[in-house]
């Protein structure tokens, strides 16, 4: 058994922040990792993870502590919701060698945290079902019918969309892949399936534009709320002097509307960096968006912690040389 000193409480100059969503913490490298049964509110030392070999699946884990430097007089702990009676504590991936090397009274051997970077969809808001609705509304509006199912417009079922969005980042790549697999469709845009690259690009552009406007209408309806704990985590990080950024693969206009509606204009304008899919050439899991964010924030990659919800996002963050916390959703919990 590991000594109790492997798990330290925050010092007076640190604020303890519990993430309210289930998370997976990843640390690769030569230190390795091993599992340990623990309760839902157990503090973890150094929830910071090296970029080596990101995992290929996510496990359901209890929420950890995120230690933020704090210079105020009255730090307030943010605690996660208790486990329901039918839930059991899950094993945690811990950097055993590193933990054993950290004295109970030491501050940390991890790189200092200078920037906290959030994905948007699935992190700030649990939105994948809303995106699926917007896609299906788009397919119905344009009467998009693939040769594999010509009797009805394309309709992505929840199970299929979960698999699709966890494997392919970005709306246009999703549709291009799907039409490549199922056959290019007829539609109100093209009565016969497009055969040239230019016509196929035009089809996808028009579908994506309409889908984006439909998604913005859903977000702007006032019925969508941010995930629990997100706003307070942002505020506490800001108060601790940590830079904040949002990096999303989604279309810029839809992310802006989403952030304005969900985190408020003051928090949005207070971000130190905001990037969307339009700002980089390659989508996640390519690390471009996070590398660009580090440059704009003027921080080293090793001093950034990214909050993601999926394997694709985790791969993008770790390939950028950043640490990553995965707060997964019902759509990403069972990724393999």
Automatic annotation (TrEMBL):
The GO terms describing molecular function are:
hydrolase activity; metal ion binding
Region spans: Disordered: 30-56
> InterPro entries from the xrefs?
CbbY-like (IPR044999), HAD-like_sf (IPR036412), HAD-SF_hydro_IA (IPR006439), HAD_sf (IPR023214), PGP-like_dom2 (IPR023198)
Q: Where is the composition biased (Polar residues)?
A: 38-48
Please give the superkingdom of this protein's source.
Answer: Eukaryota
SUPFAM superfamilies from the UniProt entry: HAD-like
A Pfam family in this protein? Answer: Hydrolase
UniProt xrefs under CDD domains = HAD_CbbY-like (cd07528)
> Which family does the UniProt entry place this protein in?
Belongs to the HAD-like hydrolase superfamily. DOG/GPP family.
Q: What is this protein called?
A: Protein CbbY
